[in-house]
Amino acid sequence: MTQAANNYDPIRLEVFKHLFAAVAEEMGVVLRKASYSPNIKERRDFSCAVFDAAGNMIAQAAHIPVHLGSMPLSVAQAVAELSFAPGDVVILNDPFRGGTHLPDITLISPIFIEEGGEQRLFGFVANRAHHADVGGMTPGSMPVAREIYQEGVIIPPLKLAEGGRLNQGVMDLILSNVRTPEERAGDLRAQMAANRRGVARVQEIVARYGADEVTRYMGELLRYTERMTRRLLESLPDGTYRFTDYMDDDGIGDEPVPITVSITIEGDTATVDFTGSAPQQKGSINAVYAITLSAVYYVFRCLIGLDVPNNSGCLAPIRVIAPEGTVVNARRPAPVAGGNVETSQRIVDVLLGALAQACPDKVPAASQGTMNNVTIGGWDPIREQSFAYYETIGGGMGARPGKDGASAIHTHMTNTLNTPVEALEYTYPFRVVRYEVRRGSGGAGRYRGGDGIRRDIEVLTEAQVSLLTERRRLAPYGLEGGGSGARGENVLIRNGQETPLPGKGTVLLEPGDILSIRTPGGGGWGKEEYGQSRCVVVEKEDERMV
Fold first, then answer.
1. What is the pLDDT of residues 60-93, one digit of tens each?
2. Which of 61, 123, 368, 413 is a plausible cystine mate for 66, CB 3.0–4.6 Å?
3. Average pLDDT of 315-340?
């Protein structure tokens, strides 16, 4: 490691780090601007990345953390099953073949360069975007299912384009199995456009610096991130740190679902072992291995704290054990829609809970621990077409040593924005009647947890709602004597009467009904001092309100 560390130009390394990151960022700009759906255009529920010829992730833009460790598995699966030629585009969403859950559709494009009059495979670009509907038993494709076949159309690695020409048969097959084909077609074409931009930009970098130099610094970036991760691990005291937290339920049964981890630090390596976690569940909270790997990547990447590249080098010194057939590494045909969005959040909570024992000065209390997934679908009588709306809703961030938690924000494995009220009401037969910070929902402590959100949506037509939410029974934990954050609530308001809704399930709404989502607060950090009285400051873009 020492020899490798001294065998490169650090200034040139920094240049290449930003070059590759800029490629991924520009891909994201293209995808956002060209997309049709508010979920991608407004909420930015997507990620873009650059890979070397071996499938190692060299750079990912600062998009969605849950995609960090999982997209390389998609590329690896595509490489294992298919051959590539210039102009090809591979599509997949199968969670058991490199995907996460079915709404997340990944497109992979090879990068070829010319050498000696021949085309040589140099690397890949890929992007993953959450589509608001991919079929299945409920609009939005996020149901409480009992098997994956109920969750939507399953796409193995297939050629969506070959030699630059669209495979219309594959496109038609996908669009015939979704409720909003025009929107899906627009988003898929936006994904293809993003990949084309990424391929062109990497080819330009190679043309400027030469293939050998670019390949060399791809490797150096991987080794640099690995060194920084090893340095972090060396700074932690050796030992084994254990923690258990629980999912509220699986949506079918009522029992809490434990997730257990033991993290063993030995010098500059770590073993993360999820043995003891619950078996895979009947309901759709099961996570595939790619999700668990992403959560591990995210947590250790956060602890590094430095501006190191988002690449595969982070996982090199970390061994992850996730027994097959458990809620953190489910087998087909387990339903997995909620594993990506809900179980991933709880995996982060247990990892941070364990690491708080090793480095209490670096770890925050539990954040809201859920993405508060809401899907609403039906028939829009004004536009005379089907609609499918999907959104995750922010909440409270856990307090950390020296600072209160942020309020009304997306935390941990999600990094999306909200859907602006104007965009929501313009696109769907909805009216947002209440949208505010849920005051007082953050946990008490020397440093208070951030507050959650209340978002009330009135539907103007008959609609089917599916909810996949957590922390409705078990509150986000505090640390170092801090209090728990408030639990979330889902409420149906009909004719002014409030009816509690379960954390997971499907309900039919009538015109004029209001769906009220009240999200959890973050946990507090440290014991609250006697007589302590501090104002709570909420930051809202460019204004501050006390």
1. 987 788 877 788 999 999 999 999 999 999 999 9
2. 413
3. 97
- What does the DSSP 8-state code read for residue 226? H
> What is the domain range of residue 211?
2-224
Sign of the alpha-carbon torsion through 412, 417, 421, 424: negative
Say if 131 falls within a structural domain: yes
Of 224, 259, 293, the position where a domain reaches its end is 224
* Residue at token pair 């090879």: 110
In whole angstroms, give the CA distance from residue 450 to residue 182. 39
The verdict on whether omega for the bond into residue 333 sits within 30 degrees of 0, i.e. cis, is yes
Task: Report residue 507: phi and psi, to 5°.
Answer: -140, 145
User: Three-state SS for 465?
Assistant: strand
Q: Assess if residue 433 is contained within a domain.
A: yes
Average the pLDDT over 32-36 and give the result. Answer: 96
Long-range contacts made by residues 161-168, C-beta under 8 angstroms, separation at least 24? 161/87, 161/88, 161/89, 161/192, 162/85, 162/87, 162/88, 163/85, 163/86, 163/87, 163/88, 164/86, 164/87, 165/87
Number of domains the chain contains: 2
Q: How far apart are CA 110 and CA 53, in angstroms?
A: 9
- Assess if residue 316 is contained within a domain: no
Q: Over the stretch 448-462, which tens digit does the pLDDT of each residue have?
A: 999 999 999 999 999
The answer to whether the Cα torsion of 180, 182, 185, 186 is positive or negative is negative
